[in-house]
Amino acid sequence: MAKKSSRASSGKSDRGIARQLATFARRMADCGAARPGSIVLRLRGAGGGTYSIECAGPGAVRVATKATRGESLLEVEAEAGRIQAILEGKRNARHEFFSGSILVRGNIQYAIDLAYELGFIRERF
Fold first, then answer.
1. Among 10-14, 36-40, 59-63, the least confident range
2. Which of 31, 73, 86, 100 has the fewest Cβ atoms within 10 angstroms?
3. What is the DSSP string of the chain?
4. CA-to-CA distance for 68 and 70, rounded, in angstroms?
5. Inter-axis angle of helices 80-87 and 6-29, nearest 10
6. Are 117 and 31 in contact (CB under 8 A)?
7. Partners of 53 in the beta sheet?
């Protein structure tokens, strides 16, 4: 039996996380809590890599595959699969954060405000 190449399997995950991040960026563009600046995601595992969600103002949010220069509003480190599952609504963002599966640096209140407004958490903490 032929062994699947890791390249082929990671390609599917790459498209999945990229698609979920693009959807997140579109939702963030309509979010009142969004602030100008970037959110850097450092994702490990299949589909991993460094992504930057850049907000230039209301309605202007895009996803880049490289971290922007300068200071970001937030930096998030996690397994790509966990972030994808949260974005798909399959995992509880609050539980993942408190269990230590997601590490967040920067403006934590901003992260909470975004997560609440976008429906990833049900109440602010």
1. 10-14
2. 100
3. -PPPPHHHHHHHHHHHHHHHHHHHHHHHHT-TT--SEEEEEEEESTT-EEEEEEEEETTEEEEESSPPSS--SEEEEEEHHHHHHHHTTSS-HHHHHHTTSSEEEE-HHHHHHHHHHTTS-SS--
4. 6
5. 40
6. yes
7. 39, 63
Q: Which two tokens stand for residue 68?
A: 């922007």
Query: Could you give the dihedral angle defined by the CA atoms of residues 16, 106, 95 and 45, in that order, rounded to the nearest 10 degrees?
Result: 40
Tens of pLDDT, residue by residue over 77-108, are: 999 999 999 999 999 999 999 999 999 999 99
Amino acid at 118: L
Write the pLDDT tens digit of every residue in 40-68: 999 999 989 999 999 998 889 999 987 77
